[in-house]
């Protein structure tokens, strides 16, 4: 692979291997599972991810039609029921990402599964295979931005209600988290539904990108909705973020604290242009996130 490349492997609790690769500043990881060679040569289907895509029957109605939302669900080992972790996706980046792309993070799912959580990645309306129109918007307008966020929060609430009807999910409060728009939505949701939430995890959250003149107004407004959540939250941000500078994100956190919110803001070094994607670097966040989860009430024993 060339000079400077390294690969390390560690045994996972599942019996497989966790592989970590590094070449300069570029890192990646993979989960490796033993497979029977004879079965593979007979044409067996390879399960590339443990996540299972399912449709949630929700109470949402659009144009007179019921809405199903896709969710990718990762179950830990055991019979359950398990405490639920809901992880929310970001935007399409103004069209950089196709709305039809289903978003999830295997690294985060494995991390939470290992700690007893069943993990769901709901796809909001018009995203992935979900029904309905993707209409969260990118206008640099306060009313339109907050209207899009309200629509997203309604989708998250509908997905959680549907997930709670599953027999393998415990009735305990949930862990909620997300990436980018999903991060700020998770903080806001915790403040709107504090009795339902055990903890909130914000990966580089924000709604309106900093280049919008109304970004601070919009982002402050949404984070301040989460300030009524009485428990600590955790905010995980990277330097060199092309959407939100560290100064902008720290200002959002200051507005959240000023409104009464509790939390810890962590800043990680990232290479140029990669600060928005720290969720892809579990070597950065796994230690702090593990400590945060241990500070919460322990998940219900299965």
Task: Please provide a written account of the structure.
It is built from 7 helices and 11 strands. It has 302 residues and is an alpha/beta fold. The chain has a single domain, classed as Rossmann fold (3-Layer(aba) Sandwich). The strands form 2 sheets. An 8-stranded mixed β-sheet has the order 4-5-7-6-8-9-10-11, with helices on both faces. Strand 9 (197-203), helix 5 (215-225) and strand 10 (233-238) form a beta-alpha-beta unit.
Can you tell me the overall shape?
globular
Indicate the CATH topology. Answer: Rossmann fold
Q: How many angstroms does the end-to-end distance come to?
A: 44 Å
Looking at CATH, the homologous superfamily is Alpha/Beta hydrolase fold, catalytic domain
What structural class should be given to the helix and strand makeup?
A: alpha/beta
Helix content: 25-40%
Order of adjacent strands in the largest pleated sheet: 4-5-7-6-8-9-10-11
For the record, the CATH class is Alpha Beta
Biggest beta sheet attributes: 8 strands, mixed
